[in-house]
Amino acid sequence: MDERTRLRLDVAYDGSGFSGWAAQPTRRTVAGVLVETLDLVLGAGTATGLTVAGRTDAGVHATGQVCHVDLPSAVWRQHDGRLLRRLARLLPTDVRVRAIIEVPADFDARFSATFRRYEYRVTDAAWGAEPLRRHEILAWPKPLDLAALNAAAAGLVGEHDFAAYCRRKEHATTLREVTRLDWRREADGILVATVQADAFCQAMVRSLVGAMLVAGDGRRPAEWPGSLLARRERSSEVTVAPAHGLTLVAVGYPEDPGEYARRAEATRRLRVPVEG
Question: What is the largest CA-CA distance in the chain?
């Protein structure tokens, strides 16, 4: 069997024109476009095993997505140093591979990850979102109180069963550890929620945001989002925030490459899905 090399790809994309990350036969997806372009550059089927850190939903953006692929080592030696620029010339402008790094064979973009970090952007300006930023910012129709948003966020930090905020999958746990959840108002008035956890179940981030926003505009008390954690089924009271305000900004991995395999083994034992 030919020797193979594993490559980590750091990827950014504007999710507006994609039906999410995962390849679908009749839809334009980030994975589908990436595989098509790798096949064009390297030859069909040369890059194998595309694996992503988090399969973002339709309309969700990324500035810090991570995936890995395997190449025959001879092909990598041939293209090392110029693959990044070749991909830049051939990929559509709404997706970019920002870095290509050779990694150990036991690196797993999905299971070796220690955290995923998302940001959600909202404006409560009376005129709505600026036209040039309308694809990344949600326009909220009511004034939002920063203190109330952060009070709501505080009740959601920590390890909890987030069943009320997740689309449950068979044989998958909804137990997650949220290590950071806070809001800030930037100089231009945009409100930004930063959400970081070991992993996320499907629609979890946007469900959390949806619950916090109705606390932030005064329609629910600040304690309400946290109170839903006592439920063991998805709450019909939570409205999922629109996808276009959400961006995957970072994925973390062990600093010591020797820990990649151990982290991946631990994650697999937990059977934790990583969709956000």
Answer: 63
Q: 25: which 2 tokens?
A: 């036969």
Instruction: Determine how β-strand 138-139 pairs with β-strand 115-123.
Output: parallel
Using left for φ > 0, alpha for ψ between -120 and 50, and beta otherwise, residue 37 falls in alpha
Judge contact between 202 and 275, C-beta under 8 A: yes
- Cβ proximity of 75 and 46 under 8 Å: yes
SS3 210: helix
Token pair for 199: 């992993």
**Active site residue ranges:** 57
pTM: 0.94
DSSP structural state of residue 153: H
Alpha carbons 193 and 145: distance in angstroms, whole number:
13
pLDDT digits (tens, 9 = 90+) for 18-76: 999 999 989 999 999 999 999 999 999 999 999 999 999 999 999 999 999 999 999 99
240: CB partners within 8 A, 6+ apart = 203, 206, 207, 210
CA nearest to 186, candidates 117, 141, 252, 133: 133
